[in-house]
Specification:
One of its GO terms (molecular function) is GTP binding. This protein is α/β, with parallel strands linked by helices. The protein is built from five helices and seven strands. It starts with 7 loop residues before the first strand and ends in a 21-residue tail after the last strand.
Length: about 210
């Protein structure tokens, strides 16, 4: 699926403590896109620094195709946030509320859709945060919860797809509105509609 086929662009951030696996989740998700090249490896195993943006086009369940622009760093202009903790790292779980409060303070209460993600679910023998406890935290913060594992490719696509579909539903309800100077959601204007499926459409103003 090409970016030029997309109707909307959603800007999404993965937030959480260092070493919870945000980069692994991103690379697994982008590598899973049809026809996608293998993402380039990190130059070193140190905690990620920088604002690299990953992109993937997605067909929503009941709606248009969208382009996801995903970063591991915090942006003001984000419409979706995956709050990620490591199920084997108690501190990373305890810090989730701090990450949530930071987004709410900077972004505003009506601008972001959240999903709580418990990563490294394949490490069952060393986990120290139960699914029930995480579900209770998610419910108290008004968001859904999902466990993932980039290593075993468990629920990685589902986590991003769930967040994207929730954003689309919020748009349809009017809970989130397109605003000219806000980049969390952008409408991609198509210059023309090709009648031939073999013709490539111009990508349009789809840059992150």
């Amino acid at each position: 699926m090409e970016a030029g086929d997309c109707s909307y662009q959603f800007r999404i951030a993965l937030l959480g403590d260092a070493a919870v696996g945000k980069t692994s989740l991103l690379r697994r998700y982008v590598a899973g896109a049809p026809g996608a090249p293998e993402p380039e490896p990190d130059p070193d195993p140190e905690p990620t620094v920088g604002v690299e943006v990953y992109r993937r086009a997605l067909q929503l369940r009941a709606g248009p195709r969208v382009k996801l622009c995903i970063t591991r760093s915090f942006y003001r202009n984000v419409v979706g946030v995956l709050l990620v903790f490591d199920v084997t790292n108690r501190k990373s779980f305890e810090h989730i509320q701090d990450w949530h409060q930071e987004v709410m303070a900077t972004q505003g209460p009506d601008k972001a859709i959240f999903l709580l993600v418990g990563h490294k679910s394949d490490l069952q023998t060393t986990r120290c945060v139960s699914a029930q406890e995480a579900e209770e935290l998610a419910a108290s913060l008004g968001m859904a919860f999902m466990e993932t594992s980039a290593k075993s490719n468990s629920n990685v696509d589902l986590a991003f797809d769930t967040l994207a579909n929730a954003i689309q539903q919020a748009l349809q309800r009017g809970d989130i509105k397109l605003e000219e100077h806000w980049g969390g959601v952008r409408l991609i204007h198509k210059t023309h509609t090709s009648r031939s499926p073999s013709k490539k459409q111009h990508p349009g103003p789809c840059q992150c």
